[in-house]
Amino acid sequence: MSDFSIGELQKLHDVACTVARLAGNYMREDQLRRRQTPLATREKLNSVDLVTAADETVEKMIKDSILKEYPDHAFIGEESYSAGEEKRFLLKDGPTWIIDPIDGTVNMVHMFPMTAISIGFCLKSIPTVGVVFAPFLGGQGTMYSAIHHPEGGAWLSELGPDGPTTPLPLTSPPPPLPLDAPKGCLFFGEYGKDRRDHPQSNLTKKAANFVNMATEIGGRGGKGGMVHGIRSLGSSTMDMVYVASGQGDIMFEAGCWEWDVCAGIAILLQTGGIVVDSNPPLNLQDSDPIPMANLGGRRYLAIRGCSEDSTGRSPRMQQEALVREVWKRTERLDYQRPV
Amino acid sequence: MSDFSIGELQKLHDVACTVARLAGNYMREDQLRRRQTPLATREKLNSVDLVTAADETVEKMIKDSILKEYPDHAFIGEESYSAGEEKRFLLKDGPTWIIDPIDGTVNMVHMFPMTAISIGFCLKSIPTVGVVFAPFLGGQGTMYSAIHHPEGGAWLSELGPDGPTTPLPLTSPPPPLPLDAPKGCLFFGEYGKDRRDHPQSNLTKKAANFVNMATEIGGRGGKGGMVHGIRSLGSSTMDMVYVASGQGDIMFEAGCWEWDVCAGIAILLQTGGIVVDSNPPLNLQDSDPIPMANLGGRRYLAIRGCSEDSTGRSPRMQQEALVREVWKRTERLDYQRPV
């Protein structure tokens, strides 16, 4: 990230915030139209085509605004990707925006407010600026954002563009992880869109993972994790920002994409969290350091930031220990990129 | 409800809204203290005792305010109940307030914002006024409320006590349920606090229910429901108000209590929703009308309000058909009242 000064990153962040609010306003107006439109049209608006039209409109709005300001930057958007021929992981080292115009589209259709605009910016493949705006969460929407840089920061904004912001993580310094984690942790995960039914399907394995994490200690053949709770919001973007903010401890999700998590990861990294592959890397020894998740790998296990604990373990030691505890209790999931 | 005029109910509603915001302000101040307190104390604040102390403080605040205004009314609160000797279902026909000072206590400890104050008021055992205030959801908190009465109404307030309100359900008239429901529905349910591990435990059965609802049509021996999504928020109060508002379709929860759902049910009834037992009543025939849930029965299956569908089915016909489809896909749960 050495090529960009903190001043330049601040400007990038502010541009992304402005664009996210612009897109959020469009989404709010769109929902108001849907609330007032006669039923026949509303039903039509619930169909996949028209929702996709809304996604495409928002993505174009974001893309146009950003490229007008930064015409030399690369741009990866969910809708452009889905429509294009190129299905490989496209991220290069140069300045690259990675956007999900509407994460939680199913929620948006149902007007459940866990829907977010996710705008991430990467340098050398590292999420460096992240803005997540949930336009329906609270009367003025809820925005999480960060600049991942030694002189950066992370913020929660719930009172409009001119309102005060709250620094993240919410508790600073963040508390240690529970000594017997995952016991006592708040765990976020999703069932996802792969609904095939067989004993080795992703749905079957995800459900088993959730039950393992929830079951009493000693249960499930020793896999019981007795977490405080399992939360499924229907938006991996929101799952990630809650963990990044210290409003949860563990985010475990496979099947989503880099645009779902890029912005959230920038916030997570700035608040001291880590994100690794939700499948344990093959041949990883107990003493090996755990590598960061591949941004395009479709499998993410995030742990919130924390402080040294009462036994003297560093944040990283606690986080890696918790990652290994989660891996013990979860089955490997099978998500590939189309080729 | 004939004893109370709409004017009297309006006053009750306004008193409950004011009290809920008062309690919400206390909870926000309490969270600010926790964010700024050194770690040792914050860890202590995470322990069960101190969280209970917060619950008790909020319940007393609500009880004192309400009984000052209505000294002759009965009052059932979660904390008084838990502390008392009397474990039977206490609801009588007279005017009775049923309160959960803090629903989603685990979320509150983790600062995940799905936490709500739930204030319900019953006449002749029917939830008649309901106020649910989520003080951490959005910068000014999010309030759902209703007066269940022909001249009543239901409202969403996200912009503070003096801000505008949005009538509920959000889409009016509400759309029909999907013709092939539960396919296409948004389903809310919780794993709950019973984490025992055996093949017939509530946790095992709840997890199986969720997978049945999520699996593709034809899967799980014909039980696959292919809902749009499974949501677990960690607050049965919030699950209920999202369905009441038309921001979800189905709420399926067992193990919670009347104070968790009473206020939400008042909103649900006013917006045209229904709530029945999540276990099918024994000996109920296919042609029998489905009775309303017993408020003290600890098992609730709620379906949102809807309009006549394209095949001419009334809202009630669609709702009862969906209830039977959910019953087919879910196992009976075992929750009792302590005696």
Automatic annotation (TrEMBL), chains A, B:
It catalyses: a myo-inositol phosphate + H2O = myo-inositol + phosphate. The keyword Ribonucleoprotein does not apply. It is an enzyme of class 3 (hydrolase). Mg(2+) binds at E78, D100, I102, D103, D260. Keywords: Hydrolase, Magnesium, Metal-binding. InterPro entries: IMPase (IPR033942), Inositol_monophosphatase-like (IPR000760), Inositol_monophosphatase_CS (IPR020550). GO terms for molecular function: inositol monophosphate 1-phosphatase activity; metal ion binding. Pathway: Polyol metabolism; myo-inositol biosynthesis; myo-inositol from D-glucose 6-phosphate: step 2/2. Its EC number is 3.1.3.25. Its cofactor is Mg(2+). One of its GO terms (biological process) is inositol metabolic process. The keyword Cytoplasm does not apply. Belongs to the inositol monophosphatase superfamily. PANTHER family: INOSITOL MONOPHOSPHATASE, PROTEIN QUTG. This is Inositol-1-monophosphatase. It comes from Mycena alexandri. The lineage of its organism: Eukaryota, Fungi, Dikarya, Basidiomycota, Agaricomycotina.
